[in-house]
Specification:
- It contains 1 helix and 33 strands.
- The protein is mainly β.
- It has 3 domains: 86 residues, Sandwich (Immunoglobulin-like), CATH 2.60.40.10; 217 residues, TolB, C-terminal domain (Neuraminidase, 6 Propeller), CATH 2.120.10.30; 93 residues.
- The strands form 9 sheets. A 4-stranded mixed sheet has the order 5-2-10-8, with no helix packed on it.
- A hairpin with a 5-residue loop joins β26 and β27.
- The chain is globular and about 65 Å long.
- The chain starts with a helix and ends in a 10-residue tail after the last strand.
Length: 427
């Protein structure tokens, strides 16, 4: 259900991107005296017509692959944010390296990758595609076109143990590969009993299925692609020395998409005592790939024990694991689901409210005022945030009311529902 909600949020935000000019972007200087710089890059995989925008304006229509550049040039020091206004029919295009600040030179590094418009999800439906659950309720990874056609199981497990399953699928930045967690049996016959969950990749058409971790005793999950599509960061209970043994606590790991370069980015040792079983969850790459955030209940002084009151905080580190530090310092409440803004300047997360903080740890603030708000997602231009809200449609407290999807400006203003479910349920 949470995966379904996330897909709704992403779709709504993609649809509304370009609705207004980001408040953080100054009006471009059009005077002749200022030196101007162009914003551009390269598109690949395109067939049909794609419309881009920069800073929610300056429409640029593309119908062929290759280099592109927006007509309107900007002065040094101004921000840019390239987003998609309309997708080509039957394709899904993704922007990479699409936002930043001009630094006295033309921008040529924005990349647009287009591929078949598909949704990846996990489900316990029968692998023959019938609308019934398989006998053991084993989940598999499925892909389906946006129009509902060509539904296909990427994994074909039929039993909970020894036959695999799949969870948490994520598309690569180029939309040509999937990464996910699975208890599938390894190619060498290992993990035949399904004890371990490993990180697997597959091509978007289901071919090329292979593991990029090969444990038989520990669980790994929550995989996330690096912005360049070359690495995957994930969470694992594996011992930090790399042995195939449960280390008693979670750590953040990284591995190349080809399975090489496996490395623990954090080194919490913890233990089997409940007070030492430290969590480290939801790693997320910064848009430029230089930083990684996650949330953990580790003590703020960095010692290998759970924080007082089990409060979790947002932590940040360089992409090689150096510079690890807490970004928030909460001691009585926890945090959940941190997400980078598209330009990498802010992070939104859930605590007692939906909150934001600058990437340097300054300006922590609540942008909602109710604990019923959750699952925040940025719009592609960083101007809005969609979220799940267990409230009446007028914003007053509810009891047994439906969960709806709301949207607000990035500073918390102009909160309003975009779905209108009134019976008990989830939009």
């Amino acid at each position: 259900m949470k995966r379904y909600i996330a897909l709704i949020l992403m779709g709504l935000l993609a649809a509304c991107s370009g609705a207004s000019t980001p408040s953080s972007t100054p009006t471009p200087d059009t005077s002749d005296s200022a030196t101007k710089y162009t914003i551009g890059g390269e598109v690949s995989g395109l067939s049909g017509t794609l419309v881009l925008q920069n800073n929610s304006a300056d429409d640029l229509t593309l119908s062929s692959n290759g280099a592109f550049s927006f007509v309107t040039a900007l002065a040094d020091g101004y921000s840019y944010a390239v987003t998609i206004k309309s997708q080509p029919s039957g394709l899904s295009c993704a922007v990479n390296n699409g936002s930043g600040t001009l630094n006295a030179q033309n921008v040529t590094t924005v990349t647009i990758y287009c591929g078949k418009a598909r949704v990846a999800y996990y489900s316990s439906r029968n692998i023959d595609g019938s609308n019934s659950a398989n006998t053991n309720l084993t989940t598999n990874i499925w892909i389906v076109n946006f129009d509902g056609t060509d539904s296909k199981a990427i994994t074909t497990a039929t039993a909970v143990s020894g036959d695999g399953g799949g969870y948490q699928p994520q598309w690569s930045p180029k939309n040509n590969q999937l990464v996910f967690s699975s208890s599938l049996k390894l190619p060498d016959g290992g993990n035949a009993d399904g004890t371990a969950h490993n990180i697997w990749v597959a091509n978007s058409d289901g071919t090329g299925l292979k593991p990029i971790t090969t444990d038989t005793n520990v669980t790994s999950g929550r995989p996330q692609w690096s912005p360049d599509g070359q690495k995957v960061v994930f969470v694992s209970w594996k011992k930090v020395d790399g042995s195939d043994v449960n280390g008693g606590t979670q750590n953040i790991w990284v591995v190349g998409v080809d399975g090489t370069g496996l490395k623990a980015l954090t080194s919490m040792t913890g233990g089997n005592n409940p007070s030492q079983m430290i969590s480290a969850e939801f790693p997320q790459w910064s848009p430029d790939g230089t930083k990684i955030i996650f949330f953990s209940n580790r003590k703020l002084d960095g010692s290998d024990a759970i924080n007082d009151n089990q409060a979790s905080n947002v932590w940040i580190m360089d992409n090689d694991g150096s510079g690890l530090k807490p970004l928030t310092t909460l001691t009585t409440v926890g945090v959940y689901n941190p997400q980078w803004s598209p330009d990498g300047s802010k992070i939104v997360f859930v605590s007692t409210n939906i909150m934001t903080i600058n990437a340097d740890g300054t300006d922590l603030k609540a942008i909602t005022s109710n604990i019923s708000a959750s699952q925040p997602q940025w719009s592609p231009d960083g101007n809005k945030i969609a979220y799940q809200f267990w409230q009446k449609l007028d914003g007053t407290n509810s009891s047994g009311e439906a969960v709806n999807i709301w949207i607000m400006n990035a500073d918390g203003s102009n909160q309003k529902p975009v779905t209108s479910v009134t019976a008990s349920g989830i939009a």
